[in-house]
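Cross-check.
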Amino acid sequence: MKVEEGSAVDDLEELLKRPETPVEALSKLLREQPGNRLVVARVLAHPNCPAEGFAAHFPDFPEEILGNPVFELALLTSPDFWTGVFNRLRYDHQAAMERVASLPSCPVSLLAWCTLNPQRHLTTPFKVRLLTNAQLP
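Predicted model, tokenized:
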């Protein structure tokens, strides 16, 4: 599926609009279009987004993932989700994670995980944003 082709663009748009688009089709888009930020963002916001897409792309697309209606459910079914996110974290993603930590929509599970799993790679600005987040239990 090539995004450049006219009918493929229409097919892709239809695929991303349909709430019943299968997880397998969305997984395939994530694999085949990793450099297409628009497609990746739309897949991550889709209610059938594969759970592995959340952890793999969280630092780059936190708003899309936090806005996904099934994200909280995915967290419940994946107790090691935040560990996976931080294991994939590169230095250049620190700013994104700092932004997420200061959002009012920051998941309480992230706040709890960070307080229970202090990591060396959590920067001081990130820790400050976590500790000053109003949702901190």
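The mean pLDDT is 82. The radius of gyration is 16 Å. Passed to J.P. for a second look.
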